[in-house]
Amino acid sequence: MKKSTRLIIKKGLFIGITLLISVNSWAQLLPYKNPNLSSEERAKDLISRLSLSEKATLMCDISDAIPRMGIKKFNWWSEALHGLANNGNVTVFPEPIGMAASFDDDLLYRIFNAVSDETRAKYNEARKNGQENARFLSLSVWTPNVNIFRDPRWGRGQETYGEDPYLTSRMGVSVVKGLQGPSDAKYRKLLACAKHFAVHSGPEWSRHSLNINDVNPRELWETYLPAFKSLVQKADVRQVMCAYQRLDDEPCCGSTQLLQRILRDEWGYKYMVVSDCGAISDFYTSHKVSSDAVHAASKGVLAGTDVECQWSDHLYKQLPEAVAKGLILEEEINKHLLNVLIGRFDLGEMDEDNLVSWSKIPMSIVNNDEHRKLALDMALESMTLLQNKNKILPLNKSKKIAVVGPNANDKPMLWGNYNGTPVRTITILDGITSKLSADKVLYEKGCDLVEDKVTESYFSQCSIDGKKGFKVSYWNNKDFTGDVVATQQIVNPIKLTTAGQHEFATGVRLEGFSGKYETEFIPSKSEEIVFKCGATGYFELFVNGESLAKYNNWRTLPSRIPFKVESGKKYKIEIRYAQLNNWEANIEFNLGKEVDVDYTDLIKKLQGTDVVVFVGGLSTQLEGEEMPVSYPGFKGGDRTDIELPVVQRNCLKALKQAGKKVIFVNCSGSAIALVPETESCDAILQAWYGGESGGQAVADVLFGDYNPSGKLPITFYKSMNQLSDFENYSMKGRTYRYMSDPLFPFGFGLSYTNFKIGKATVNKAEIKSNETIKLTVPVTNAGKRSGTEIVQVYIHKVNDIEGPIKTLRGFQRVELAAGKSGQATIDLSPSAFEFFDWAQRKMMVTPGEYEVLYGNSSDPKALQTLKIKIK
C-alpha cells in the first residue's frame, strides 16, 4: 500500500471517529439542546421541563432569562420598517410609501436583505460587547406593515405600500424574504412580521376602542386580507401581529375568526401571532369585553395570540392565575408556547454561534458602500413627477436658483418614522448645492410647516447666577438623585440628542440618565410669549414652581405652550428631563414672542432669481402614530384636512404673484389635495420621505441627472369632499378601485421622455379557470433620453356591478434607451382573475368575460383593453 493511500485512510478514519464522537455528544444532550433535532421536537421537550410561571414569562415580548434551563433573555420587539429602527449609524432607506412608488420588488428584496444583514451585525456586536438582548436590538423585527392605505388622512399610511392589495402583496413578499433569509437555510436570519391583522388603517385617536362592523365579506377578502394571505403562503412569514381595534365586535387579538378560522384553518399558518403593544389590556380598559387582566390574558391566548406585547406589567404573567381559576388549561398554554419556542429555535439563538452562519456577519457591513448605493437607488426610483408645465424641468445648472421652504434643510424629515439614525444625511438643500457653485444658490426657510407665525427667540435674555442661558445638572440615573455627574451652561436654544451615540454632556450615559435645566427670565414688557418644547422621554416644564407641561413621549413631538408674562417680574424656569425605556434621548426648548409671517422680506431677498425650488409638504412631526400633539388640520397623528397647510399655500401664492417660476418638491407620507398648487406651481415633484440620500435623489431629478420613473401607489384626491367618514371602513368611493375622479390617479407619474405603449397580445383569449395566460405589451421610447416605464395591468370582471372598477394584477418595469423599443411580458395566473363569489362566500375564479386593461397608470385615458373569456 502506498504511503499516500495510508494517509488518506487514516485521515478518513479520523474524520469518521470525530463525527461519531460529535453525534454521540449531541445524543447525550437533553433533546431541547440538540441542534440536530427539529425546532418542533426541541420546543416540545423544553416545554415539558418548564414550570407554568416560566411558560407564562416566555409568552411576553420581553421574555426573562431562565438560567436553570440555559435560556437567555429575549426581546421580541425590534423594528425594521426601512432600516433598523431606534439604532444609530445604520442605513436609512426611503419610507415604505416612497419605496412603493418604485414598483420595484426586486430592488426592495435587495434592500431588506441589506437591512437584515445590518440587524444581525448590530446584534452580533452587542452580544460580543456583553450587552443583553435589548428591546429594538433583537432578531425579531415587526415589519412589514401591509395594511391598505384606504384613506389619505391616516398618519401611519406612510408605513404601508399604498392602497392596492396586489402591489402591497408583491412588495410585502419581497420584504419578508429579504429579512428572513433563504428558505432552505437551517436558521432564519430574522423573523419578519405581517402587521396589523386585520382591517386596520386609522383613525389613530380611536384605534383602542373602535369597532369596525361596516366591512362586507367581499371587501374583507378582496381588499383587506390579500396581502396577509400572500405573506403567509408565498413568503412563509414567521410572525403575524393582530391589531388594536375590534372587527365585528371582537378585538382583533381576541378574534377566533381572524386568528383561527382564517389565519390557521383556511391559510394553513403555523407560526406565531403577536399582539400590538397594549392590545390585550385594551380588552378590559377600552373594549370592555373582559372584566380584568386575568380574563383578558386567557381570552387572548384562547383566541390565538401567542405573545403579548406590553409597555410594562405583562398580563400574560398572570396566566397561572387564569389556569387556577379554570379559565384556561395548561395544555392550551403549551400549544401556544410551542409556536413561540419554535421561532426562537429557528433563529438559532439557543445554539452555539459556530453553528449559525448569520452570527458571523461583521459590523463592517453596516452602511457600507453597497448599502448606501441601495438607499440612493431606491430614493431615485421613488421620485414621482406629477406636473411639469412647459417642461421647466430639468433645471439649467448655469442659472441662479432660490431654495425655499420648511423641508429644504431638514434631516429628520427625510428619515420618516420608525427610523434609525443614519451615518450621514444629504438634505435637499445639500443635494441642490452639490450641483451648483455657491454663488448660484440662495436659501431661505421662508415659512414653517404649519404655524403661520414665527418665534422671535428670547433665549438670550435668560440667565442664572450671573451667566447667560440655562444651568444644567445631570445624574446617571432616572431619578435626579445622588451625585451630579456633569454640569453645563447652554446659551443657545436647547437641542440635544443621543442619536449617533452623542452624550448630552461628557460623563453622561446614553441611557438611564436625568437632567435639570434651570434659568430665570425677566421680561421687558407685559405680553404673551410661547414655550416651544419637545422631548423623547420624560419631560416636565415648571415656571415659578408650577407645572405647565408634562409628558413621556417615545418620539420628539414639538409642542407650543402660550404663557402671559408681566414686565419686570422674575420667572424661574425649570425643566426636568429623564431618558426612559430604550428610546434615543432628545430634548428641544426655546421661548419667545410669536410674530405674523410676512412674505415681503422673503420676496425682497429673492430679487435676481427667477426660479424657486420650494421644498415643503408634511413631516413626521405632523403625521404618525398616535401622536399626543395636534396642530390645525391634524389630530393625534392623523389629518383632519388633506390640503397643504395654509402657511405653505400662502407662501407659494406669494412667490407666484412675485413672478417666480416655482418648482414644488412635496415631501409627505400621504396624498395631499394639491389643487391650488397645480395653479401656483410650474412643476410638482412628489419626493415622499427619501431616507439618508433623499436630498441627492431630489437634486438628481431636478437637474436631469436622473430621469424620474416613480408612479403613485395611492390616489391623490381633489378635496375632502371626495372622502366619506374616516371611521367608515366601507371601500365605496375610496381608492382608484372604487372612485373615478382623482386629481392624480394611482399609477401615475411623468418622465422626461415620451413612452408609447402598443397593442398587446395574449397567447390565449379563451382559457380554463386553472390556466395562466401570457400578456405581451410593446413599449417604445419615442423621446430623446433613456428612461424607465412601468407597464401596469388591471383586471375588470364584465357585468360585475358591485365590484371594483379595475384592480391591479400585474406590472413590470421596462428600461429603454432613447428611440428604442422593447416589451413587457406579464404572466396572468388564475389568481389574477380571482374575485369574491357571494354564492360560495370565498375567493374564486368563475366563468365569464374579463377585461384586461394595460397602460402606464390607472387613468382610463392611459389604458387599452382586450377581452379574456374563462370557460
TrEMBL record:
| GO molecular-function terms, A-Z | alpha-L-arabinofuranosidase activity; xylan 1,4-beta-xylosidase activity
Q: Which SUPFAM superfamilies match?
A: (Trans)glycosidases, Anthrax protective antigen, Beta-D-glucan exohydrolase, C-terminal domain
Q: Does the keyword Protein biosynthesis apply?
A: no
> Which Pfam family, an example, fits this chain?
Fn3-like
- Coiled-coil stretches are none
InterPro entries linked to this entry: BXL, Fn3-like, GH, Glyco_hydro_3_C, Glyco_hydro_3_C_sf, Glyco_hydro_3_N, Glyco_hydro_3_N_sf, Ig-like_fold
The biological processes this protein is annotated with in GO are: arabinan catabolic process; xylan catabolic process
**What is the superkingdom listed in this entry's lineage?**
Bacteria
Q: Which UniProt keywords apply?
A: Hydrolase, Signal
The PA14 domain covers which part of the protein?
A: 465-607
Please report which protein family the annotation says this sequence is part of: Belongs to the glycosyl hydrolase 3 family.
What is this protein identified as? Beta-glucosidase
Organism listed in the record: Bacteroides luti
